[in-house]
Amino acid sequence: MKELIENALLKNYEKYYRLAYSYVENEADALDIVQESAYKAMKRCENVKEEAYIETWLYRIVMNTSCDLLRRKKRLSECTYDEQAEPPAAGSDIGASLDVHNALQKLDERERTIVVLRYFEDMKLEQVAAITGENVNTTKSRLYRALRKLRAVMEGEGVYE
What we know:
Blueprint: H1 2-11, H2 13-24, H3 27-43, H4 54-79, H5 93-105, H6 109-120, H7 125-132, H8 136-156
Helix pairs in contact: 2-3, 2-4, 3-4, 4-7, 6-7, 6-8, 7-8
């Protein structure tokens, strides 16, 4: 099983990096997340019972490691005050990208994960459901609820006006 996991890690490294980057939006942190996730996977390789679940299992490890890092950073940022620079104008490409990022941050962790996997990683709902451990109908409901929230947030911030 260890060799299969190692092959999956090497084969899908770019996907895991993109997933981590979509959470942390920092190259160094994303690389650290993939590295730590690979370590965790190799350390716990005996936990995988069937070869068919390796990729799903690895995605979950990357997602959980990304969320752990974000939680640690949030705790640290609550302890220190960092003055923010003036944000870019909403009409610019960077501003629009930041608007989407800020809107995604207003979703809860489950909703954000589903949106990221579905639209940033271009996964089918069945794959997203397998990774999140939910059934497909629950995943669909959460996705549509998250999209409604995103639209409301973005319209409220004047992005669509």
